[in-house]
Write a structure and sequence with these properties.
The chain has 71 residues and is mainly alpha-helical. It is elongated. The longest helix is centred in the C-terminal third of the chain and has 14 residues. It starts with a helix and ends with a helix. It is built from three helices and no strands. The relative contact order is 0.10.
Length: 71
């Protein structure tokens, strides 16, 4: 749970790597510091959906858009 990770860091119980938007508010409030990673990290993502599920046109279009953007 990202909220628990943030709280642990705020309490001084460690460090973590999380997406910046997750801690943007805490950074703005001065509750946590951010160290830039160099080189930046990337994370592979996948699209999951129920096998043999009947999909609406909107869902199929959304999946196609995601797949085209990944190429």
């Amino acid at each position: 749970n990202l909220q628990m990770i943030k709280e642990a860091v705020i309490l001084g119980r460690g460090v973590s790597i999380v997406p910046y938007p997750v801690v943007e508010k805490e950074v703005d409030e001065g509750r946590v510091e951010v160290a830039e990673l160099s080189p930046s990290l990337t994370r592979p993502l996948g699209i999951i959906y129920r096998r043999n599920a009947k999909m609406s046109r909107a869902v199929r279009a959304f999946l196609e858009m995601l797949q085209e953007g990944a190429e």
